[in-house]
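Milestone 3.1: sequence recovery, worked example.
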């Protein structure tokens, strides 16, 4: 078993495979760019911009079942908003990047199975 879980997406889609493919395609298309932005913003410590980028990922992550990442992103958002534990953000960003990178081949596999 991988790190993705499409049960919520499948439930939401109610059998509409075109919709599932569309959501997976959006994730597949946007995630590599988000990863690059997270790396750059973390390196330059542009925390507010980082908060915006990770926030945009939340709905996609929930649809493909990356719930562990949702809690990490929520922590990141809260820390940035409250300006606390900013020293933890680099490590949290690394976890988000690693899990997103691991998820992409799985999303490719899901697309291949449905297509």
């Amino acid at each position: 078993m991988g790190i993705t879980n499409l049960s919520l997406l499948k439930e939401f889609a109610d059998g509409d495979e075109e919709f599932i493919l569309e959501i997976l395609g959006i994730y597949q298309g946007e995630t590599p760019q988000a990863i690059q932005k997270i790396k750059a913003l973390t390196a330059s410590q542009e925390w507010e911009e980082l908060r915006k980028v990770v926030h945009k990922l939340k709905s996609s992550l929930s649809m493909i079942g990356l719930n562990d990442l949702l809690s990490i992103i929520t922590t990141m958002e809260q820390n940035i908003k409250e300006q606390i534990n900013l020293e933890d953000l680099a490590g949290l960003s690394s976890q988000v990047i690693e899990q997103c990178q691991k998820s992409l081949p799985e999303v490719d596999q899901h697309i291949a199975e449905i297509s």
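Residues 17-43 form the longest helix (27 residues). Residues 61 and 110 are 15 Å apart (CA to CA).
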